[in-house]
Each structure stands twice: as structure tokens, then as C-alpha cells.
Sequence to fold (346 residues):
Amino acid sequence: MAGKMKAVVKTEPGYGAKLVEVDIPKIGPSQVLIKVTSTSICGTDLHIYAWDKWAESVIKTPQILGHEVAGEVVEIGAQVSKVKLGDFVSAETHIPCGHCYQCETGKQHVCNTMKILGVHVDGVFADYAVIEAVDIWLNDPAITPEFASVQEPLGNAIDTIYAGNVAGKNVLISGAGPIGLLAVGVAKVFGATKIIVSEPNSYRRDIARKMGADAVVDPTQEDLGYVVKHCTGGIGVDFVAEMSGHPVALNQSLKTICTGGSMAMLGFPADKVSIDLTNDVILKEITLIGITGRKMFKTWHIAKRLLKEKRLDLTPAITHQLPLEDFDQGMALMKSGNCAKIILKP
Ligand SMILES: [Zn+2]
Ligand SMILES: [Zn+2]
Fold:
């Protein structure tokens, strides 16, 4: 498709991004062009926008930001049979190589040479975006474009909570950022008995309640261990979803788990973390589980069912909807913490 489009581009190293006019991208034989109808801002986008050390080490400018998306198929590469013109789609953001050990043993989401949409290749904060056929995901028409674009982080939440086998269990969600908030809803729908959320930001604690939390705690003001004991009849939680990546939160959370329990960790600490392995893990027989991204495509199937059947309502976790042009405002909101998922619409 010839022509121009608007896009949010990191034009040069440093803080911020610019809304610029660029050519509508051309697709290769294994790719699909979509017209973007809804996108959402991820923490990754903020890292790139703010240009932290990680961004500096991976991003090559110019680079179109964004990876969470819903849109319509407008052009299809010669080798692609998965979708047809006009289909309502979203995109997985892991771009796997397809032939490394991980890819060949059913773990494409942790491919050894994985690329990421909006990080290593141009992203979706634009009128149009190129998606690899392997990553295209056909949405159910019953799902709104806003919810459809949030399926990617919802998949992170699903993967994390799934690891805890939470039905009938007491669960602590440590950190109620956007994915932590989605995880509250997932834990509820997966049948957790009691969901306790630990989060210093009161705006986010309020949303956690709306997403189904039974108790919310400000760990900087209250004794998390005491609250967990009180809520669980003195036993402790069976499972922690560690979404904060904060070393203090991680240590506090470990101590709230009952003997024989488990913790899945999605939030990653910026530096090495010290934990009391002997007392908090080994002697308590705690299972620690690392979570990266989403299973391709198990978590997408679960997300689709939950949203299509209206078993999970994401409304409280979508706090802002802005035109794409207002991405600076969206990034400022993300930085303030007084938001959950922010939708941008081209
Ligand atoms: Zn994301
Ligand atoms: Zn691979």
C-alpha cells in the first residue's frame, strides 16, 4: 500500500519521541499489514520513551514504538494463509526464529534469538503496522478493540497466575501495576479463594478492589505479614504472583508464603537481589517460578475465551483512552503511576 502515515517514532537517542509522517511500510511474503484501530501503552514503551540504560542498549533509531495492538488486515503476504482481508486481529509480540532448540521444543516464547515487536522491529503506535504471520492472532468479533489490544499484557497475567494453580487457594499479588491489576481479575476468574494485593499507590489499590481483590495493603504503611496472617487464618498465602520486581517487596512476599507454597515472578528487579534462601525458600520447600512473556498460543486462547464469554471484565483496568497524538500525556501518566492500561487510538 503506497502513501504516508503518522507514527510515534524514537527519532534519535535520548528522552521522548516524536509524532512524524512516514511511509506506510511494505510487507514481505510472510507478513501482514494491519490498519491499527487500538493500541495500549506498555512499561516497555515507557522504558524506550524515557531512554533508560536498557533502551540505550537495545534500541536502534529510528524506531516506531508500541506493540500492544488490535486492528484490521489490509494487506497479506504471498505465503500467508492464516488470515484474510478485513479480519479483526491482534499480535503476539515475540518474534521467534522457529528453528532453535527452544522453538523446536514448544517454547517459542523464549526463543534463543527472539526479536520483539516495537523493540527490535517497528511497532504499532502508527496508522499501519507490519506483523509477522507467525504472530498474527484472529480476534473474536465479540471482543472490543480496546480489550483486544490489552490481550498481550493480559497474557502475561494469565501465564503468571496459571503457574500458581490458584483454584481454592489464598493468593498474594505483589505490585498492582497494569499487569498486576489484570492478574487480580485472572486470579478471581481462575477461582482463587482470597486475593490480597500489596501496592503502595492508592489509585492502583482502588482499581485492585474493583478488579476483585478481597484485601489491599499499602506495604509502606502497614505490616504485610500481619495482614496476610489475619486474612488467612494464620496460615499464609499458598501462592504469590510477584509483579513488582522490587527487592523489598520480593523479600516481604516470600515471608508471607505458607510452607510448601510457591511464587511466580514476572516483575524483574533492576539489580541483583539478596534473599534468605535457607529460611525463606529451602526449609519452607517453596517453589520459585520465573515467567517471561506469554505461552504461544495457549495464553491467547485462554484470553480469548475469558473475554468472549465475558467472564473477565477489563473495564476497571483501562483507565484512559487518548488519541495517538497525545502519547506524551500517556507517557506522563504512566510515569506518575496514576493509571492502569492507557489506550491510544490513531
Ligand atoms: Zn506489553
Ligand atoms: Zn528460536
